Amino acid sequence: MQFSTVIGQLEVKSRLIKSVKENRVSHALLFLGAEGSGSLPLAIAFAQYLVCENQGEDDACGKCPACVKMKKLVHPDVTFSYPVTTREKLKNPKSVDFITEWRKAVLHNPYLGYNEWITELDSENKQGNISVDESADILHRLSLKSVEAPYKIVIIWLAEKMNAAASNKMLKIIEEPPDQTFFFLISENYEQILPTILSRTQLVKLKKINDEDMTNALMERHSLAKESAQNIAHRSGGNYLEAMNLIHHHDEEQNENKRFLEWMRACLKMNLKTINDLTQELADTSREQQKLFLQNGLHILRECLVINYADSSMIHFEGEELESFRKFSPFVNANNAERFIEEFNKAHFHLERNANFKILFADLSFKVNGLLHVK
Prior knowledge:
globular; 17 helices; Rossmann fold; alpha/beta; 5-stranded parallel beta sheet; 5 strands
């Protein structure tokens, strides 16, 4: 995976390459960026540049044996850690147990998101994490000498998923790694990482992908007409994963938006039958789908605020869907918007911690009823 495959982020790419040329690469980098900004492909591209046997001025050569291995994610001196879940016959899972699934998922989509990865694992509603057993496995990997490259590189995807025991076990080696060893931590949530881990890393911050870079990527990679690419780029909010979802799941997204509006109308009128039917319908889906429903709801609430108070060019909806949300948007206003966001985030937080969905959703429905009547 080369720098050329990473959308935008030109300033960060330039800074990383310069650090190599000046021999100033930090032993522990934290690639921080929102979902879909490209933190994972950028970290992999940087690892490939480091192990490349014929580095170019602004990218890896893409042809040497090391680059060929990196394209397949099989370079022996570049290893990965990522959230995994338990299975019936695998009570203490480690990343290596899922390496086949990992390579397949990342090669299919380097802008992989947590929800997509957990779905790939078929986790049966279990939450993925990086455990102390994984930390022990990382220490074991680093006790071995490098095989081909002058460096050993460990890429830890979604470092915020390391539990406390795993983080504490990694502290010493991240602070004082073996010679020619690099840690690339990737995170979407800075505040969820142990402060003692943060203090041992150098921050590489990625911005969301700008509309111009996103538009060009969509035109080149998905053969979209310029107008369609611009529309999707605008709606995606700098998230390439969201842009791909908009391309491939447009009908599904519209159905989810309709279901959200149906729920809002039921809450407004306190139509208990409809609320109960929707609760049962959502309860039959996976935990990740339930979380996505709440996340999509937050997105819709923010869009309603944009419709009410911002420039029309910032609205992501269009056509009949836009008209439906124009009618609903007056119920989301300056007096209740903060509470809406707070309650949805709170529900998402408890859902992540395995709260009973039916109880949680019923409680949220009653709270939404009160908020919808705030003028």
